[in-house]
Amino acid sequence: MIGKTQESSLRKNCWVSDMDINRVRTVYGWLINIANNPNYMTFPIAPSNIQNIKNVLIKISHDIEKESPYFSQELFEIKDRMFVGYGTINPVVFGQAIEILKSLQQADNTKGSGVWDLIHPKIALVSQNLFEDGHYANAAEDAFVEINDRVKKLFMKVNPTAPKVPDGYTAMNMVFSDNAPLLEFCDRSTETGSNIQKGYMQMLAGAMSALRNPKAHANITITKDDAMRRLMFASMLMYKIDEAVKYSGIMEKSSDRYCSNINKISLLLLRIIL
After folding, report:
1. Exposed/middle/buried for 22, CB within 10 Å: 0-12, 13-18, 19+?
2. How deeply is 29 buried, as exposed, middle or buried, from its count of CB atoms within 10 A (0-12, 13-18, 19+)?
3. Three-state secondary structure call for residue 248
4. DSSP at 89
5. CA 162, CA 169: separation in Å to the nearest integer?
6. What is the mean pLDDT of residues 164-189?
7. Counts of helices then strands in the chain (DSSP H, E)
8. To bridge 177 with a disulfide, which of 33, 104, 135, 181 should be the other Cys (CB 3.0-4.6 Å)?
């Protein structure tokens, strides 16, 4: 568990008063525009545009390196992992970059807030204690397990007579399908709305394939920084699910959330005992 001094430092590091907020908003807008392209995962980005994005991320990283070293390091590393091959996008890392830039904007509006104040409450509930106790792989895994569990419950809510409940990658593609979704993020009648639906469906499905069970992948070490990157990405996805639930008019049972919390606490106690 982190000490009080470290915790105080971590909270202080989210205060990014020297940051050029307009620069952050500009590159955030660029990334959102790219994500709104229906073929953004397969259509290569021009090398000049990739370099422009990298250059701006470097500048933001330098702007905040004194007051927010954590976010500074994250952006500096992410810039080299956002694009692969001949300019195609890595959707998971791309989503992480968007979430970090969004968090920086939120931090600018709420100076003094801590990292956990920017994490979705559902993610913080299942992952914060594990993370602060040094169980980084478990913290990252539980965040995406929580997303998976919530989406499966939403599937059952909308489709209670289904003979089988999908899981993981399949669940994300079915529930948030860009053709016939059970839940919609926004109005899909416009091109932008359709692109948003498809983009977040792909991010959610990709997260289930790549990040839900990091401990199961051989030769992968989950560091503290890597775990926090994944928690921030999971938080962004959970907030988007909030939007889909609200837009689609779905009523989630409070009892379901209560039982889920009890189950998570029970699992945590078992890990401590064992």
Report:
1. exposed
2. exposed
3. helix
4. E
5. 18
6. 92
7. 11, 2
8. 181
